[in-house]
Design goal:
Largest sheet: 3 strands, mixed
Strand order of the largest sheet: 2-1-3
Radius of gyration: 13 Å
Number of strands: 3
Helix content: 55-70%
Shape: globular
Strand content: 5-15%
Order of helices and strands: EEHHEHH
Structural class: alpha+beta
Distance between the termini: 33 Å
Number of helices: 4
């Protein structure tokens, strides 16, 4: 089963959209990892739900910044530990981190 991450501020095809697919288990891990590290309890609760996608257009700009912050600042070290015995999983998450970094800098969501 596959999972998806959509980097976009608008629903539907748009110029800022980046679509990334991976295994469902990796998306579950990404959502849980972010949920454990954001300060907003409502956002954390929503991210903690095990669903196979993460679509940034569903969140406020402030929430997107919090998600991006965790992905860019905490996730690089976290992926090494979580996927120590899964080079494929590490590679998938590192690909996402690079895509988020580009997208966030291009559209003003990076710190």
């Amino acid at each position: 089963m596959s999972g998806d991450v959509i980097l976009s501020r608008t629903r539907g095809p748009s110029a800022d959209e980046v679509h990334w697919s991976c295994t469902t288990g990796v998306v579950y891990w990404i959502r849980a990892f972010i949920a454990e590290r954001v300060d907003d309890p409502d956002l954390a609760a929503e991210l903690a739900v095990e669903i196979q996608y993460l679509m940034l257009y569903a969140y406020t700009d402030e929430q997107v910044r919090a998600i991006v912050r965790v992905i860019l600042h905490d996730m690089p070290a976290g992926v090494d530990e979580a996927f120590a015995h899964s080079p494929g999983g590490q590679a998938e998450v590192r690909e996402l981190i690079a895509m988020v970094d580009q997208w966030a800098h291009r559209y003003g969501f990076a710190d």
